[in-house]
Fold:
Amino acid sequence: QVQLVESGGGLVQAGGSLRLSCVASGNIASIDSMRWYRRQVLKQSRELVASITDGGSTSYADSVKGRFTISRDNSKNTVYLQMNRLEPEDTAVYYCNADKIIIGSTRQPWYNTWGQGTQVTVSS
Structure:
């Protein structure tokens, strides 16, 4: 069993910062790319916010470039999202995603694993 668990969300004033964490638990040998998505209020689909490969290459949505930074610690199976200069438009539920996780004991791949989400609310 593999799980992704996010933490670090909360309520912050515009201009403030938050750091989200996502820990992958289980008997994990490796994780390929990891991503942060968000679902804003009244929107049905999730928006890709940032992604990072297992080698550390990153990419960002235009709306967060220069404000958000994604990073990962492979030794801890953890991905982070540092969010600075937050705006009310950043209010959303943030989800962690891993596109392929290799289980250590069986080498079985798990595809497209999602966390349960963490709420970020930015007040004006």
User: Anything to note?
Assistant: The chain has a mean pLDDT of 96. The two ends are 41 Å apart (CA to CA). The CA atoms of residues 45 and 124 lie 24 Å apart. The first strand starts at residue 3 and ends at 7.
